[in-house]
Amino acid sequence: MDHRMEILVGVEETWRDHNSSTKELRKSEHPYMNEDKIQTPEAKRTGSAPSVPDLMQTGAGEKSSGRAAAVCLGLLCILLLIGLITLVFLYIKGNSERDQLQTSYNNLTKERDQLQTSYNNLNEERNQLQTSYIDLNKERDQLQTSYNYLNTKHEQLQTSYNDLIQERDQLQTSYNNLIQEQDQLQASYNNLIQERDQLRTSYNNLIQERDQLRTSYNNLIQERDLLRKRFDDLVREKNDLQRTFQELGWVYFSGSFYYISSLEKSWQQSREDCWRRGADLAIINSKSEQEYIRRFQRRFWFGLTDSGIEGIWKWVDGTPLTASYWAPNEPNSYRGTDEDCAETLFYTWENSWNDEPCHRARSWICEKRSA
Ligand code: BGC
Ligand code: CA
Predict the structure, then answer these.
(1) Residue whose CA is at the smallest distance from ligand 1 atom 2
(2) Domain residues of the chain, as ranges?
(3) How close is the Cα of 272 to the center of ligand 1, in Å?
(4) How far apart are CA 186 and CA 176, in angstroms?
(5) What's the CA gap between 263 and 368, in Å, rounded?
């Protein structure tokens, strides 16, 4: 039981006590409630007590007993007097007590009324308190609900707050990264601006160059057309010459004309014949040329010799031998002979060259470069 309930119970108990005491008071406020049952001195006189004439009638009957009767009567009178005095005394005393009781009764009535008023006030107050208590209880329940709701809300908010803190930290990191990126982008932007300016300059230069090139191009187009005409003339000329060479026994391969003799002469005489034809003995300076010459399947002199210094082979144009196609065990200056000139003795082999004495008579091959 809470404090307010205790107060209310206290008030009720006080009221009960008051009621009981009031009832007692009610009993006591009528001290003469059984007044009718109390015999007044008068009633006693008129009631069961014998009257004086009765006594006198009895006394007159007998003389002897008359005195006794008189004495008795005197005694009776005295007794009656005493009784009367007692009764008067008791009456006065009772009256005074009654007045006092009346005063007390009035006071108690007043007090009771005040208590009643207090009781009513208290009752009212109690009812108000009861209402307030119920309201407060309701309010407390609502507050409890609100509290629970707020508690849940608070927890949710706490969670949200924590999430927000985390999010904020992430955003802060992202922000810092963005700032860094922005700085880098700014630097890149500045570089790009510089580059753009350089490119603009280059572009302007290029425009100038382009214009110059356009002019050059137009000049070149003109030149090309002229050259094309000249080229066509030269092709025609070359084809004419090729035809003439072929008619005179020359064959064409990869920028050179080749002539193979039908006669046989020494290496030197063979060379001189080539000179007369505006050519020289053939110089074989590529694998494809070696293969082309091998296709004739003939043994002939070509333009390679070590007649200058033994063992140092040179082409007829004075250039040293680099790539060679000597047959196995060649050059060998066979059996001590002086073999200083080169021929295609082993023409069936991929490496077909042999060194041979220069005075021997062989066919030969001349070469004339077309360009
Ligand atoms: C040639 C030599 C050559 C030899 C190879 C001879 O007939 O005159 O130059 O080295 O054959 O077997
Ligand atoms: Ca040889």
Answers:
(1) 334
(2) 2-98, 239-369
(3) 25
(4) 15
(5) 19
> Measured between alpha carbons, how far is 190 from 314 in angstroms, rounded to an integer?
66
Instruction: State the angle between helix axes of 64-247 and 52-61 in degrees (0 to 180), rounded to the nearest 10.
Output: 150
Closest ligand (CA of 360): 1
Per-position b or e across 185-195, b if 16+ CB within 10 A of its CB: eeeeeeeeeee
Nearest to 292 by CA among 324, 244, 254: 254
- Please provide residue 316's backbone torsions phi and psi, each rounded to the nearest 5 degrees: -65, -20
Q: Whose CA is nearest to atom 4 of ligand 1?
A: 334
Closest ligand 1 atom to 356 CA? 9
Q: Strands 300-309, 363-369: parallel, antiparallel or unpaired by DSSP?
A: parallel
The pTM (predicted TM-score) of the whole model is: 0.42
Residue nearest to atom 11 of ligand 1 (CA): 334
Region of residue 66 (left: phi > 0; alpha: psi -120 to 50; beta: else): alpha
Phi, psi of 181 (to 5 degrees): -60, -40
Which pLDDT tens digit goes with each residue over 213-240? 889 889 989 999 998 999 899 889 878 8
CATH code, residues 239-369: 3.10.100.10
Q: Which residues of 314-325 are buried (b: 16+ CB within 10 A; e: fewer)?
A: bbbeeeebeeeb
Which two structure tokens, joined as six digits, stand for 55? 């006594």
Count of alpha carbons within 13 Å of 290, Cβ hemisphere only?
17
Which ligand 1 atom sits closest to the C-alpha of 329? 10
Rg of the chain on CA atoms, in Å: 84
Strand partners, 225: none
Identity (one letter) of the amino acid at 205? N
What is the tens place of the pLDDT at every residue in 79-122? 888 877 877 777 788 788 888 878 887 887 888 788 787 767 77
Q: How far, in Å, from the CA of 357 to the mean position of ligand 2?
A: 8
Please give the distance, rounded to the nearest whole angstrom, from the Cα atom of residue 319 to the centre of ligand 1: 26
Residues with CB under 6 A from ligand 1: 330, 332, 334, 339, 354, 356
Residue nearest to atom 12 of ligand 1 (CA): 334
